[in-house]
Amino acid sequence: MHHFAYRDGSLHAEGVDLERIAAEVGTPVYVYSTATIERHYKLFEAAVKQAAPAGKAHVFYAMKANGNLGVLKTLGALGAGIDTVSEGEVRKALAAGIPAERIVFSGVGKSEQELRFAVEAGIYQVNIESESELNLLSKVASQLGKRQEAVFRVNPDIGAGGHAKITTGSSENKFGVSFEEVGRLYARAANLPGVRLMGLAVHIGSQIREIDAFEAAYAKMVALVGELKDEGHRVERLDLGGGLGIPYDIPREFDYGPGLIEAYAAMVGRVTKGLDVELGFEPGRLIVGNAGILLTRVLHLNPRPTKQFLVVDAAMNDLVRPAMYEAYHEIWPVAEPADGAATTAYDVVGPICETGDTFTAGRALPALKQDDLIAFMTAGAYGASMSSTYNQRPLVAEVMVKGDAYAVTRPRQSYEELIGTDRLPGWFG
Q1: Do 261 and 47 form a contact (C-beta atoms < 8 A)?
Q2: Handedness of CA 90, 284, 216, 158 (dihedral sign)
Q3: Nearest alpha-carbon partner for 43 in 7, 11, 15, 2
Q4: What is the CA radius of gyration of the chain?
């Protein structure tokens, strides 16, 4: 369930009229609903804790989906841990007040500096993705006089996801160590001075709406846990990753009910039954995707003989998913259309000097005019977090709503700030 609905003829985020946010903050602007974030997290956490052996489950929100400090603080207050993939994300989690012992560090290319910072901070777990990373982590941690708790991320050769670019579990993907190497690496890690190996991790992809692939991968991991234990190894943790998908084609009366989450949790309980380990989960999009929208204003209408271009002030630098993944987002007018209102087929495009700066083609929408506001729905994940300053466009503003109040959680970047990040070479004097 998301908390965006029409009231008195205007689209609201919880109790706040989006017209008001547009007037006071400007557009384009991301708007996040606190109530939606909280609901989705609580629903997922309750389901997986009930399914886990003896209730031993930890939820680590995948920050790459949305790293807004307000989002992190909201989830931290609910007891969430954070799954990070860079030193910057570790630092931001700490800045949001997340305790280091609730932070996981994932990622295929961790540098020595990044590992050093994570170990010094005292994070909960490093997800090791290669033998060379194992060696580097042990070296760094032993130099600091520590043994860092870690798990091996295993590539199960079972890939899934809503797009080829977000599949991570196939042997063709760059992530994790191969199944064939785990036994040797596990035994080797036991003799290294800077690593305390705690178990295994797996993550097969993103935006997965069917649980069969999850079940196949998890069954392989459970069997691997048994084999390692039979060989005398300690395996106390099994991190099952994230990737559970969300609907993007949502009707206006949409209720994100517990059906898929409950089915996923029931599968986890079935596959891991009798397994004496702590389970970890790393949902990202599932928590924040439906909790955010990108609010934008119509700049121009440009009619052609065969189509109608609708030019808005948001662009692919603000929301790259349609250009990068051919992703679909519902588009809702902020002014509520009348029942049965006539529609026009629009190509909705942004102002960037790229043909790829197209959000959708031939989309049937109620007739729109210059200065009208529209909202790209389900934009809370991989929207602002993937934004850029391409074409020298300032980074977009972000707003969080809670009840009848809103706060700007990332101000719109000024042109002075944008240009001020550059430095002229000394030879210009």
Answers
A1: yes
A2: negative
A3: 2
A4: 23
Spatial CB neighbours of 109, under 8 Å, sequence gap ≥ 6: none
- Verdict on whether the full-model pTM lies above 0.90: yes
User: What gap in Å lies between CA 99 and CA 93, rounded to an integer?
Assistant: 8
Q: Which of 54, 338, 342, 353 is an active site residue? A: 353
Q: Where are the alpha helices (DSSP H) in 123-256?
A: 131-143, 179-189, 212-230
Q: How far apart are CA 315 and CA 350, in angstroms?
A: 4
SS3 call for 291: helix
Alpha-carbon span 245 to 214, nearest angstrom: 12
8 A C-beta contact, residue 202 and residue 169:
yes
Inter-axis angle of helices 179-189 and 212-230, nearest 10: 40
Confidence of residue 51 (pLDDT cuts 50, 70, 90): very high
Could you give the domains of the chain? 4-31+290-420 (2.40.37.10), 52-282 (3.20.20.10)
Largest CA distance in the chain: 73
353 is catalytic: yes
The residues facing 358 across adjacent strands are: 349
Task: Give the angle subtended at the CA of 150 by the CAs of 145 and 154, to the nearest 5°.
Answer: 150
Query: Which of 410, 390, 378, 293 has its CA nearest to residue 350?
Result: 390
pLDDT digits (tens, 9 = 90+) for 108-123: 889 999 999 999 999 9
Q: Residue 84: how many CB atoms within 10 A of its CB?
A: 29
Which helix (H) or strand (E) segment is 90 a member of?
A: helix 87-95
